[in-house]
Amino acid sequence: MVNVLAVLGLLVRSIVWLDRAFPNTKKKCMDANHYFCLISNVWILYFFTCNHFWHLVYAVEAYMVSNNKEMNTGMKVFVGWFIPLFMAGAAAVVVYYQGFNSCFSLSLTRSSIVYILFLSPVVMVMLINPVIFYQAGKSAKRALIWHYGRYTSSERKLVDAIHTKFYLILIIYFICWIPNLVNAGLWLRYESSRTSFIPDEKSILALFILMAVTNPLQAVLAALVFWGLPNTNRLRLNIFHRSEAHYNNSSGSSIINRSGLSGISTGSESEPLLSYRTKTTF
User: Fold this and answer.
1) 0.90 surpassed by pTM
2) Cα–Cα nearest to 63, from 174, 173, 139, 154
3) φ, ψ for residue 194 (rounded to 5)?
4) Rounded to 5 degrees, what angle do the CA atoms 74, 78, 81 make?
5) Burial of 62: CB neighbours in 10 Å, binned 0-12, 13-18, 19+
6) What is the pLDDT of residue 245?
């Protein structure tokens, strides 16, 4: 959901600015274009930041479920909604505290702060989530062995399905957000040394187009991983469905997707490692 709202903000802002409805930086009084610039920028920053923090929440909760624990709902709401709100508010203050006419004209210092506030969650997810996913996979494997006293092909297929889902989540995230890190690095280097470094205009344009495609595309690709392809009212990727169905039909019920691992009935957070459909909002 947060991805959809962020992309919707990008789409509306792009349509308005294609009509050249830019705010006049020379005006001392606010007009509709200034208000739109402020609201749209904060909207986009907030919901994209929520997207990054919900990825972190997903990883932490997957790890906790694999260890027979449950993440507090209040903590999820705080991390997923309120921390991004604080960061978006801080970015708005940095940009507009000297006046609302600075929607486009930012100094190097203020631009750097905004880039840090926007991209630090991206770097955090790229560094932390792989470690958490790795530990969650190991914990799920240990839980299966401890519960059944065995590790046969059935358990192995379920663990492989969990690992595959984690890999897909990380690959999609890296592909969709690395262009933003590259763009930030190039732009900040250009602003700090305009005379010694002038990037190629075609390369910058290609990078902008790549970001315009990959950032919204993450919403689609992440939905396919988290929810799967629609198929007779069962929303999950076939590889996960087959692995889970095979294991549930084997000699023992799945400790991961049933109440044995998380202590909650099937269909809620008792199955976050495979389908993860209900409580975590993206």
Assistant:
1) no
2) 139
3) -65, -30
4) 125
5) buried
6) 47
